[in-house]
Amino acid sequence: MNSVHSTSGMGEHAVEITRVADTQWHAVEDDRVVGRGYASRRPDGRNFLSIDAWHDAVFDQLADVMLRDLPKPLYAVIDEADRDLTSNWERAGFTTRRREWEYLVPTDPRVTGLGSVLPPSGVSIVAVGEAAEGPLRKLDREIRDEVEATVGWQEMPAEVLTRPNGDTLLDPSKYAVAAQSGKYVGLVRVAPVIRQPRIGLIAVRSDQHRRGIARALLAHVLGSLHRCGIETASAEVNESNGAAMALFEGVGARRASSNLELVLR
Fold first, then answer.
1. What pLDDT score was predicted for residue 14?
2. Is the pLDDT of residue 171 over 60?
3. Which residues have C-beta within 8 Å of that of residue 243, sequence separation ≥ 6?
4. Among 79, 100, 121, which residue terminates a domain?
5. CA dihedral over 235, 240, 243, 248, signed as positive or negative
6. 176 CB contacts (<8 Å, ≥6 apart)?
7. CATH value at residue 36
8. The pLDDT of residue 3 is above 90
9. Which residues are CB-neighbours of 182 under 8 A, at least 6 positions away?
10. Number of structural domains, the chain?
11. Residue 95 confidence (pLDDT)
């Protein structure tokens, strides 16, 4: 694909925007690539854009062409601390849809205060990678249905969004679960990122809330990481999820940065 759009000049030379592939655009000035734009489709079907440009004017020209070429709504994720990039997307008409805080979570039980935390009576923890796949998938579907009925599954982290086949559990080996009476009632997803594993999701069935199961799951995975010599994990939490923020801040996690999800409808 090589659709070409002529644009206004940059200095003495015109900038030419070319769609070089279904999901990629180049901005060329005087035979040099001075900007690139990308579109990527998330598992839930939403299109996310990113633009890397030398100048704000090139960003604007790339954005203008991409927005004409692609159907709305369109999304972008940016580091909130990058004010220049935020301004660029706002000029293109994007607005903030949600904010996610990135937390750095200590694993040392002497810091978290989780060393003495045990699961509630009748509940046991099944370690990461040891959960039976069938019951785990059943719990995943139950929790997904509960979330869909409230805030909507689209508010979940990208790695647990629905795949084209409707699946939201891509790799069962990344989960630890809480079990009661032969059934799974809570789960935590841990991505084994080198040096700083990521806690991608903690969820408990609604009829088991306020029993301390989420805290017990967190105590289990953080304790396991600490015993492996890992001092810190990371987690991203939607700022609208007050319970999750309280859970992490209650164990000494600190906010390190924030990302904004932007949307153009």
1. 81
2. yes
3. none
4. 100
5. positive
6. 125, 126, 127, 128, 130, 131, 187, 188, 190, 217, 220, 221
7. 3.40.630.30
8. no
9. none
10. 2
11. 97
